[in-house]
Amino acid sequence: MSFPVHRMRRVRSTEALRSLVRETRLAPSQFILPLFVCPGEGVRKEIGSMPGNFQLSIDELVKECAEVKSLGIGGIILFGIPEVKDEMASGAYAESGIVQRALQALRAEVSGLLLITDVCNCEYTSHGHCGYVRGNEVDNDITLEWLAKSAVSHARAGADIVAPSDMMDGRVGAIRKALDEAGFPSTPILSYAAKYASVFYGPFREAAESAPQFGDRRSYQMDPSNAREALREIELDIAEGADMIMVKPAMPYLDIVRQARERFDLPLAAYQVSGEFSMIVAAAQNGWLDRNRAVLESLTAIRRAGADFTLTYFAKEAARLLA
Q1: What is d(CA 79, CA 103) in angstroms, rounded to the nearest whole number?
Q2: Looking at residues 255-282, what average pLDDT do you find?
Q3: Dihedral sign, CA of 198, 242, 26, 69?
Q4: CA distance linking residue 26 with residue 179, whole number of Å
Q5: What is the pTM of this model?
Q6: 20 to 30 Å CA-CA from 107: which of 2, 14, 159, 267?
Q7: Start-end of H helices in 33-139
Q8: Would you call 63 a catalytic residue per the annotation?
Q9: Catalytic-labelled residue, pool 69, 85, 149, 195
Q10: 250 to 39, 111, 323: CA distances (angstroms)
């Protein structure tokens, strides 16, 4: 048929029409807010490169999480900043560690909020790498022992989900075995299955005080040039017992999110990382884009690509915009 029988603009002319035919929808329940817990009392220290985000002592974390719950946000993921770092990452798996104490407080005071913990070592090691360093290399198999102990300690303290982010080979299987043997067979594993060695983590390293003291993490995190390898990583983690999978970062890797969605049926997360957050905030502060629209458009793109839920520092802001 000839023009103008088909006019695509007919269903775009009003907000009511656009809403009626909208294919991708956002809800606060699809967001997970990353939070950083630190020692002390009454601490609410803003992170310079991530305005509006803070290192929080446990008492302040409890207040923050009460607000998160009131906004209908899907949950939080906790990152710990210990009092002391050492070569053995002992604060990561200590029963009295900062994350373990925070979980106990949240369980007692903010009932019903979904609590996810990041299971890694970079915040806890004196050298900033994600595992045991032998020479100038991270020893994969010794690191698995640390990760398994950390995951069990988190589950014991009240974590709903444990999320290993280290990218060691075999860590999902090691954690699954340890959880089962410790009496936590129902604790799910959200695997950072395709985690790239990305420049977009820069602000996070200030937030978590986790920058490596030598070298970088490219020997264990993925090469940004590779896509097929990401699918292999995901496939292996699923075979080892992952219950959910994650792609990190999100926006620069939407092609990986889409491929993962098309190939795998497990719940799929994407992490809108610190650098993605800070770029939007900085551009908005300079008047280069509309912050509110950029927040929702970026989150919509991640959802449209196939993510079931998104880890995002915009969780509270987006929830308010959607209200």
Answers
A1: 11
A2: 98
A3: negative
A4: 33
A5: 0.95
A6: 267
A7: 58-70, 90-93, 98-109
A8: no
A9: 195
A10: 30, 30, 24
52, two tokens: 């509006």
296 is written with which tokens?
């929702």
- The DSSP bridge partners found for residue 194 are 247
- Could you tell me the two tokens for 245? 């999978």
Cβ–Cβ under 8 Å, residues 29 and 74:
yes
Tell me, yes or no, if 69 is annotated catalytic.
Answer: no
Could you give the CA distance from residue 176 to residue 185 in angstroms, rounded to a whole number? 8
Segments making up each domain of the chain, as ranges: 24-322
CATH of domain 24-322: 3.20.20.70
> Among all chains, which residue has been given the structure tokens 């420049």?
199
List, in sequence order, every residue forming a beta bridge with 190; answer none if it has no partner. 244
- Classify each residue of 249-280 as buried b or exposed e, where b means 16 or more C-beta atoms within 10 Å of its C-beta: bbbebbebbebbbeebebebbbbbbbbbbbbb
Q: What is the DSSP letter of 223?
A: P
In the set 85, 149, 248, 316, the catalytic residue is 248
Across 243-250, average pLDDT: 98
Q: Where are the alpha helices (DSSP H) in 158-271?
A: 171-181, 202-208, 228-240, 254-263
Q: Which of 34, 32, 28 is nearest to 47 (CA)?
A: 34
- Non-local CB neighbours of 319 within 8 Å, separated by 6+ positions: 28, 31, 71, 72, 73
Q: In this structure, how many other beta carbons lie within 10 angstroms of the beta carbon of residue 284? A: 16
